[in-house]
Write a structure and sequence with these properties.
By secondary structure, the protein is mainly alpha-helical. It has four domains: 3-89; 95-163; 164-200; 205-258, no CATH class. The protein contains 13 helices and no strands. The protein has helices at residues 3-16, 23-30, 36-93, 102-115, 123-127, 133-141, 144-147, 150-160, 165-174, 183-200, 206-221, 224-233, 238-257. The longest helix has 58 residues, at 36-93. The termini are far apart. The relative contact order is 0.04. Residues 165-251 form the SCAN box domain.
Length: 258
């Protein structure tokens, strides 16, 4: 078989495989077989065209592979988000808010939020689906801005259930042994009320406990008007409480004279 025939077969194959355009065949036909220079030029052009097509094919395959990988990663992220959403929903359904477990409910939710790395600015949205009764009423009464603030939501609900420092203090002071209780059970509950009172006032040192006891005793020894004034100002140190009481007494002394 002659060289030009072999080249012809090669060109036809490359055209059939869409590697070269059909115009190459037409060009090849018009080239005289004895024109060595022209054949060499044509071979170089063909070789260049083949390399170009091969490069384009490789780039296309690489692009498709990248797109497939990106799509796969996108689907995996979506699946992970869906899995996390289902887990969040399941975990939240395990939480129950009742009259006697409000503190436990919030503590449990906060631990869950930390463990699952929920964004804190989404906590109020996540927790509101568990509100019922009084808690739901309190949440509905909040402004849109406050309802988006978890700490404000928690504070409002704890206040509604009277789970504030003064309520804890009164529970501790007024708690008495029931006839059906053993002294061990009574001691446990008494200690629990005391711990809750201290925790609500963030008492964690001896000095803080000392101030707590002194301020309480000071308030017990003053008249109701001054006591109410002190409660409204929420001072935690004896020196602050004493100054507030003096200011109140002085102001009302002058107002009575006037």
């Amino acid at each position: 078989m002659r060289k030009d025939e072999i080249k012809r077969y090669v060109l036809e194959y490359l055209v059939d495989e869409s590697i070269l355009p059909s115009t190459v065949l037409e060009t090849a036909i018009t080239v005289p077989t004895d024109n060595t220079f022209e054949l060499k030029r044509l071979e170089m052009e063909m070789d260049k065209e083949i390399r170009l097509k091969e490069r384009e094919r490789e780039e296309s395959e690489e692009r498709e592979e990248r797109e497939m990988q990106m799509q796969k990663e996108k689907e995996e992220r979506e699946m992970q988000r869906e899995k996390e959403a289902r887990e969040h929903e399941f975990r939240l359904k395990q939480l129950e808010l009742g009259e006697d477990n409000v503190e436990k409910f919030f503590n449990h939710f906060e631990k869950l939020g930390e463990q699952l790395k929920w964004p804190r600015d989404k906590w109020s949205i996540l927790i509101q689906s568990n509100f019922t009764g009084k808690a739901q009423e309190v949440y509905s009464a909040l402004s849109i801005e406050d309802s988006m603030d978890y700490d404000k939501v928690k504070k409002a609900i704890l206040q509604a259930y009277e789970l504030v420092p003064e309520a804890y203090r009164q529970k501790f002071r007024k708690y008495r042994k029931a006839d059906t209780q053993t002294y061990v059970e009574f001691a446990y509950q008494k200690e629990r009320h005391f711990d809750r009172w201290c925790a609500s006032k963030k008492v964690s040192t001896f000095d803080a406990l000392r101030q707590l006891m002194l301020v309480e005793e000071f308030k017990r020894c003053v008249n109701d008007d001054i006591k109410t004034h002190l409660e409204e100002n929420k001072a935690d140190k004896l020196s602050e409480v004493a100054n507030l009481a003096d200011q109140y007494a002085l102001t009302h002394k002058f107002s009575k004279v006037g």
